[in-house]
Amino acid sequence: MQINFKHKQSAHCENGVVSNLMYHNGIQVSEPLVFGIGAGLFFTYLPFLKVNFAPGFSYRPMPGFIFRRFANQLGIKVVHKKFSSVQEAQKTLDEKLQQGIPVGLQVGVYNLTYFPDEYRFHFNAHNLVVFGKEGNEYSISDPVMETTTTLTEKELEKVRFAKGALAPKGHLYYLESIPTEYDWERAIRKGIQKTCNDMLAPVPIIGVNAIRWVARNIRKWPKSIGVKKTNHYLGQLIRMQEEIGTGGGGFRFIYAAFLEESSRILNNPRLKELSNEMTEIGDEWRDFALNISRVYKNRNDNDNVYEKLSDQLMKIAEREKRFYKELKKSI
Amino acid sequence: MKKEQVPQDKGSLSERNLNELCYAIDENGNYTTVQSSGWEVKSVALDESMSLIQERIEQTKKEIAEGKLSPIAYFMELNKMDLPLLASYVGIYRWFVKRHLNPKQFKKLSSRTLKKYADAFDVSIEELQNFKPY
């Protein structure tokens, strides 16, 4: 049994699943629009939380937040279910597919057989859509993949019940009802406001302040934890910023695309200018990643290089701060 | 980032014919999506992370050979797990899992407990028990 589901590749899994599910229900909404309305642009630094033997850096909010905010803003009703029983989880999934409803799943990446080994680590907040079942094989639309793929019952069970932080516990979701009218303008304004407030939040671990904190720490790390560990931390920062899912530059380019689209919808030329500014900021982030990789390759132990990286990141933070202030004024 | 600036380096994704989607500006200054086969900057960071895991595996093998750790430690590292994660996969308290990393304690494990570990690592009980580091 197959549902006629249109698979479209996206940069980030969560936006992609939402965009594809909406399209299935007859509403065309781009990935950047989902991302912007869901206030997906973010930065957080959690030095006390170790991920992969490095502090936690994230360029996005908690998994699921983008989707929830997007749905709330527009009045879309989404049903979420978690399960304690493996059998029950599969039964519910099969029932929904029988009814012709494509189902979104939260899964762990580690056992996703179609990912290359290097990308298989214990991260439990990946999203995909199941849109059919033949025998014991499910048809899968994973938005970061170019084409659709399949997983067996057993393989799917494994990824749905992955363990560890943010364990999915069989989490599935589907759209129950969608509104007949959409107030895109209001949703966009709310989304932009939320992003500005997040990024300018007066706490050290979130937004621009968190970027500055990382910048200050880059200066200290070589002395306090040694060069090797510093490089590993910086490597982790690159991975979070550029790895599959961000669309490049730590989501900054997706956000610039959102501002460009918003400028058309709201008929606000100022947003187009700010989109260009965001693109330049994204380029600076990429330049920063490039410089980190140079430090890696040259094995340059000179402390000076870390000072330079720190200064560069501090500059990005200042530029972003000005940016969000301007953005807030423009809507 | 302009369309033509989207990096097209060889990476582990392109080897499997997977291209990721990037957002970039076209010749008219508007956003569009472009596929990217990879970026060297990312490969470098990924390689470093992989070699770190490899280092940890080698170190664990050495300690198993010296009789300091049980085979569970090797399979834990091989599966990129840490202690809390392994504990939640096998459904055994962390404190006990830590004890099971001790070769002496490991020898005493019941076949039921061994089965839990073997299942979590996707190997047979024999493979787990008869693991030779070198």
Tags for this model:
heterodimer; A: 331 residues; alpha+beta; 6-stranded antiparallel β-sheet; two-stranded antiparallel sheet; 52% helix; 14% strand; globular; B: 134 residues; mainly alpha; 434 Repressor (Amino-terminal Domain); 2 domains; 8 helices; 2 strands; elongated
What does this protein look like?
The complex is a heterodimer of chains A (331) and B (134). The mean pLDDT of chain A is 93. Chain A is globular and about 60 Å long. Chain A contains eleven helices and eight strands. With 331 residues, chain A is an alpha+beta fold. Chain B is mainly alpha-helical and 134 residues long. Chain B has two domains: 36 residues, no CATH class; 88 residues, 434 Repressor (Amino-terminal Domain). Chain B contains eight helices and two strands, in the order αββααααααα. A two-stranded antiparallel sheet of chain B has the order 1-2. In chain B, a hairpin with a 5-residue loop joins β1 and β2. The termini of chain B are far apart. The mean pLDDT of chain B is 92. Chains A and B meet through α8, α9 and α10 of A and α1, β1, β2, α2 and α4 of B.
List the helices and strands and how they pair.
The complex is a heterodimer of chains A (331) and B (134).
Chain A (H helix, E strand, L loop, with lengths): L12 H12 L6 H7 L6 E8 L2 E5 L6 H10 L2 E5 L4 H13 L4 E5 L18 E9 L2 E5 L7 E4 H8 L11 E6 L6 H16 L7 H18 L2 H16 L9 H14 L3 H30 L4 H28 L1
Antiparallel strand pairs in A: 1-2, 3-8, 4-5, 4-8, 5-6, 6-7
Helix pairs in contact in A: 1-2, 2-9, 3-6, 6-11, 7-8, 7-11, 8-10, 9-10, 10-11
Chain B lengths: L11 H4 L4 E6 L5 E6 L3 H26 L5 H8 L4 H8 L3 H7 L2 H5 L3 H11 L3 H5 L5
Antiparallel strand pairs in B: 1-2
Helix pairs in contact in B: 2-3
Brief description of this entry?
Chain A has 331 residues and is α+β, with helices and mostly antiparallel strands. Chain A has helices at residues 13-24, 31-37, 65-74, 86-98, 153-160, 184-199, 207-224, 227-242, 252-265, 269-298, 303-330, and strands spanning 44-51, 54-58, 77-81, 103-107, 126-134, 137-141, 149-152, 172-177.
